[in-house]
Amino acid sequence: xxxxxxxxxxxxxxxxxxxxxxxxxxxxxxxxxxxxxxxxxxxxxxxxxxxxxxxxxxxxxxxxxxxxxxxxxxxxxxxxxxxxxxxxxxxxxxxxxxxxxxxxxxxxxxxxxxxxxxxxxxxxxxxxxxxxxxxxxxxxxxxxxxxxxxxxxxxxxxxxxxxxxxxxxxxxxxxxxxxxxxxxxxxxxxxxxxxxxxxxxxxxxxxxxxxxxxxxxxxxxxxxxxxxxxxxxxxx
Length: 236
Description:
Layout (H helix, E strand, L loop, with lengths): L15 H13 L5 H5 L4 H11 L2 E2 L8 H14 L14 H4 L5 H11 L7 E2 L1 H22 L3 H21 L2 E2 L6 H11 L1 H8 L2 E2 H12 L21
Parallel strand pairs: 1-4
Antiparallel strand pairs: 2-3
Keywords: Membrane, Transmembrane, Transmembrane helix
Protein name: Acyl carrier protein
């Protein structure tokens, strides 16, 4: 049976392959050897490598639903600050975290639960502010050191500093439509190795769903991932 809207290839860059290995190792709590990584041409190949390292079961009444268990833990941690909140999977994160800056809430959830809670994203105003800051500083450097190699060298040195400032102090928020259920699902995926270790194993289906979540940011295409989905596009 042909499934509609299946991604044929993630179409990643060569540099992404290293980042994918790091992301998978962190999420699943495993170490992938160079030979294992080089043999992975499809998402299914990578899935089988992970299954070789992480204990899996097809079904088990002894293992809780990972997303549901993660939701309950996040709810517990949130209620340490807001004990009266009626928190459900459909609850918008902005309903308790506000709309301005979610860094403190992220730190609280991550540090108190011990789970790998996904970072909120830099806001557009913060990124624009960072570019503006760099533009002013670079213009000042060129004006001070001259329109020659020295001036442009100093201006280039300021770029990492500006990036560090924005990354460290820029305002960060979760998407306005993101729910607590969404956050629980993603947190469970990025914490799967830790959760699987606590329960002794993980359901095969949940491991696959977690892998899809971890790989999704690397894909240039939307759609469903299949075991046959390749990492690199076919060479023409």
